[in-house]
Structures
1.
Amino acid sequence: MTPTRVLVAGARGRMGRVVCAAVRAAPDLELVGEVDLGDDLGSAIRAAQARVVVDFTTPAAVAANVEAIVDAKAQGVIGTTGIPPARMDEFAAWAAQAGCGLLIAPNFALGMVLLQRFARAAARHLSRVEIVESHHEAKLDAPSGTALATAHALGAAGARPGPHSGHPARGVDVAGVQVHSLRLPGLHASMEVRLGAEHETLRLAHDALSRECYVPGVLLAIRAMADGRAGLVRGLEPLLFGDGA
């Protein structure tokens, strides 16, 4: 079988280096390009004849990169966070018009995807929910894209705000869920969803102990998009469960 040709944007970044190493090590994938800030992504895609482009860059660069991916008729796997919902809708329209596919996920850790699914199921029965998420102090966005996506999903599942919601000391209200962000040196990426009801509480937590924990999800996304999916795929749940629920 011919290996899938993969190009990585943001290849010199911390996550980009991990992705490049994982693609090199995968027998069914071939790393055909590495680009970073200042490189012409569209030209690189065409020159390398890349089938799938993986983007781990910055919110400021991602729109131009997605445009270059769809213009080149490649498939995109986007791990850059901090993309506004309106921009996501725009990306979906670009992909549909070009007849290619984009998978955009706020988090590629399989354990985090499972946490989000479990938390949504729990929020239907324990509707008072809060999120505490932490990252190293250099992380650009707060709350994280993962925390925002989780809060919106929990709000849709029935989570409701509690007393004093909206007070500055109570974190940020996202769809009726209070989100608290910690940014300190020495912290790993972690998120805890706390649910409460009369006489009981439930805590669901995920810790990303190294960037390698995202590799299985990134490789899953690359292989799925290489099969020719069209349009926008939001997150890994459709790949893991098939229902997107």
2.
Amino acid sequence: MRALVGVEASPVVGIAGDFDVQQRQHQIGQFPCARCHEQPQELTSLSEANPRWAHANIRAIHPARGSCNTCHNYDDLQTLRLQDGTTVDVNQVYQLCSQCHFEQAQDWAGGAHGKRLGGWRGRRVIMNCTDCHDPHAPAFGPEIPVAGPRIPRTARRH
């Protein structure tokens, strides 16, 4: 099947279904981590007490009772750590999210949650969880609905 032009995608791993997910490493401004970090890092808290810290812009309210190393692999900063200790590429963040958000992951895999790229024909390529959700604060805030289209009324005929 034809690939979408300009969309880097890879097959989904670890979740039932035959589809691709958009790769997102190239969209992360502070990736690869090795640009700043030369070696594995010690656990550091995201604290407003240290505003000069490079990651002070992150509002870490997720995971609720976790710390940075709940998801981030400090032994290899280019990867994420799953609950069982195995590591996954940043492009496979859906594997990390699906460990807790399994109902949303089922909907995502089935096409009822998330955004499909490139229309409905051809190979199914969808966006990753973190393309829509901030992984550190994933809930969407309240928004004012956009007004619907204005359709001119036509005269009634009898």
3.
Amino acid sequence: MLKVKDLEVYYGVIAAVRGINFSVKEGQIVTLIGSNGAGKTSTLNAIVNSIKKKGVVDYYGVDIAKLKTHEIVKRGISMVPEGRRVFINLTVDENLRMGAFNNDENFETLRDEMYEIFPRLADRKTQLAGTMSGGEQQMLAIARALMSEPKLLMLDEPSLGLAPKIVGELFEIIKRLKESITILLVEQNAFAALQIADYAYVLENGEIALEDEAKTLLGNDEVRKKYLGG
């Protein structure tokens, strides 16, 4: 589905991503894990062309590296950025409508599907997003991204700042989403990510240090020591 080749991202003279290669197979959850500053967010931003980069982003056999971000979204890639970035002065319903800007004719059907997936949001349709908890805002951010009916959903640090109970609930939802969508997940919470992912890449200083099936990396001594607290 997605093949990233020789990806480089620089901020001035500082290399954030150093010529990495990875792929995402359709129907899987693939996770990029690593410490803060490893290059995970820069990689996602490069895929949707919101930052300058070099390399190939092959999506279903077509290099989309030079397409504008909104054209990439139309092709079926949607991203939930770190920090959620919901529209705090709009209601839940209005946030979802913003997510369907390219898909307005299906708005009501899709909105009802989102309320089935995220029951917490169904109870808060008319509530301003800015008055919701962090976990509820994260659910809204994911639901808003799904309103464009993407084939590939990219999630950047969805667990950031959330209580463990909410993280568990959120990751169960992400796991269920795999039944109908492919997911590229960036996470500092390596344990939570590896538990639901099919395949994983470990980024260190802008390079891929390790890659394997997620369940294998869960048992890897090096990964456990660096990222899993054991």
